[in-house]
Design brief:
By secondary structure, this protein is of the alpha/beta class. About 55% of the residues lie in helices and about 15% in strands. The radius of gyration is 24 Å and the shape is elongated.
Length: about 325
Amino acid sequence: MDLLKELTERLKRLEGHPSFDGITAAAKHISIAERHYHAAVSNDDEEGFNDVIYRANQAFEGMLKEAHSIIVKGGSSKITPYEIEEYFSRNNVLKPRVMQLFTNYRKEWRNPSTHDHRAVFDEYEALMAISNVSSFAFILLGDILERENFSIGAKVAEEMPSQDKINIKERIDLSEIVAKSIISYSSKITDREFKELGPKFLEESLWGFLTTQLPDFSIDNARRIGDNKIYRPDLVIEGKGETAIVEVKISDSTQTIKQGYWQLVRYLHTLRESTGILYIQPTNHDIPLKTIRTLFRISDPPLDISIISPFSERTAVMEIGTNADKITVVTIR
């Protein structure tokens, strides 16, 4: 896997963002580090591998600085790399997988090369440094994009007219609250956001939208469930004594109904919960969505799964099978 290529592709989703140029510059340091590596190998230049480490360090510091400016909402241009590193070390603001790479790179390469002018790195250490800093930059950029996508969804909810917001004081259950909120959000995403920012955009921006739209509920997009934590539902919503799991798909295929539906069934059984929402967004988001609610009383616990998709009741029933003993259909445009 070419991590630098993947990083560059992922970076395109930030084009136009204030941090785009800074992160692009950090990625360029990784590219130059690779050039130094190949030159040192070709010329049998042992000292050239130190240049690889120095460039990798610049990529490491650059990514941290851009992440800090986003997380601290601007931060300070006068803050030092050391202060930024200490900020991330002491504050629980990065995901565990990012912190693991951060700690490892800092311990194995950043600190030795910065504090010991006599340190010498060999070919294998230089290669490992490139691999580690590339992985760190790639995963950290994913976290940055997640925060930005969340903010886009939150902004949509904040700017909604009061008459369009869901009144949770009405006597409707969590499934209906979430379904109405999802359909409301689907009508507000733009072509550019939907088509250019990738499938994770829809899930992460919906997370931001629902978190802002439903402040009385806790919404988790990183819950691991099951033995060895092998399952990760897209969203787990909890509040007012209720729990709902949301699974998000982008597809024009009716087969996605079956795949997503039984995926939800597996999650619900694992958590011993009953409420699930499958949201299938077609690639043409101007197509009206329908909510089909299925009730499985023969299950333990009974399952209440809503399907939000452009597909008809007949199509949905054919795809999920005939195990649902009651199906209620509501079409919302």
